[in-house]
Specification:
- The protein is α/β, with parallel strands linked by helices.
- The chain has one domain: 3-Layer(aba) Sandwich (UDP-N-acetylmuramoyl-L-alanine:D-glutamate ligase).
- Helix content is 38%, strand content 23%.
- It is built from ten helices and 15 strands.
- The strands form three sheets. It has a nine-stranded mixed beta sheet with strand order 6-4-1-10-11-12-13-14-15, with helices on both faces. Strands 3-2-8-9 form a four-stranded mixed beta sheet.
- α4 links the parallel β10 and β11.
- The chain is globular and about 50 Å long.
- The chain starts with a strand and ends with a helix.
């Protein structure tokens, strides 16, 4: 059984140069660091940037399904504010907008134990159809995780995309700012954040809802309990990929049989470490890896 991050694979063009990125690829990389077989599923162009993505994934020993399509490999211009928080300019009409659903993907879906997908790669009809078909093809089984890491970016989302994804996932990961946007879309104004989480959990019959609140900590809501973890104070290099490492660690820990509260604590520790490093895919130190066994 495999764990899959599906959607955008691209280059984050940062002030100091370009780094490999895309939330699904970041997720798959951090799962692989923690000992489970993971795959990044996306598409690349027939170009030098696409070749370089393959080289980086091979070097990082990350499994992938990256068909070449007749569109340029994706790039994102990333600028950082004074606190290291990224702002994104995401190029359109690129390879990851055109991920084809192939026989290979169908075979992968049938042996997928957990998948993480977002809203960004669903901005185009082609990739949206592929992602939703993949999620629907993943067998329903005990412990199966279908994680919708909503990841709202710029104007690249609609209520329809969010609703269809919520219907197909069993875990929602969202931050406090995104929850406010959802509240406006779905008409939950004047309700506090916690009650909004309970509403979404019940309405879409979710196993879990993960709410991250930046420096104000994070929560995991399940029908039976709420887990809270404060955000550690660290010297931030940048926050690129930190949320993806959180999701990967939480998912991997659950698949290894750890309780929700333990998985949550480990996810916070890993994401705090990633914040101290530049770029989305730093190697975890042995001291941290030992905790994740």
């Amino acid at each position: 059984m495999i764990v899959v991050g599906m959607g955008e694979a691209l280059w984050d063009v940062l002030p100091e140069g370009k780094k490999i990125g895309g939330a699904p690829a970041n997720f798959a990389f951090h799962v692989s660091q923690q000992g489970l077989e993971s795959y990044a599923i996306s598409a690349i162009g027939n170009d030098e940037l696409g070749d370089e993505i393959i080289e980086v994934f091979d070097k990082k020993e990350l499994n992938y399904s990256l068909p070449s399509v007749d569109y340029p490999t994706g790039t994102v211009q990333v600028t950082l504010d004074s606190e290291g928080v990224p702002c994104y300019d995401i190029k359109e009409n690129v390879a990851w907008d055109n991920i084809p659903f192939t026989d290979e993907l169908k075979r992968m879906a049938l042996r997928t134990r957990a998948i993480c997908f977002g809203s960004l790669a669903q901005r185009s009809a082609v990739s949206r159809a592929t992602i939703l078909k993949y999620v629907e093809t993943v067998p329903e089984a005990e412990g199966q995780l279908k994680i919708f890491d909503i990841n709202l970016r710029q104007q690249f989302y609609t209520k329809e995309v969010i609703t269809e994804s919520l219907k197909r996932c069993n875990v929602l990961k969202i931050n406090d700012e995104e929850l406010v946007i959802l509240s406006r879309l779905y008409g939950y104004p004047g309700i506090d954040l916690e009650d909004k989480c309970w509403i979404l959990l019940a309405k879409y019959n979710l196993k879990m809802l993960i709410l991250t609140c930046g420096t104000n900590g994070s929560y995991v809501f399940t029908p039976g309990e709420v887990s809270f973890q404060p955000t550690p104070k660290v010297k931030v290099a940048d926050t690129v990929g930190a949320g993806d490492s959180f999701t990967a660690t939480f998912c991997t820990s659950l698949l290894k049989g750890k309780p929700v509260a333990v998985a949550h604590k480990l996810a916070v520790e890993v994401s705090a470490y990633v914040c101290t490093q530049s770029g989305a895919m730093p190697e975890l130190p042995p001291t941290l890896k030992d905790k994740l066994v």
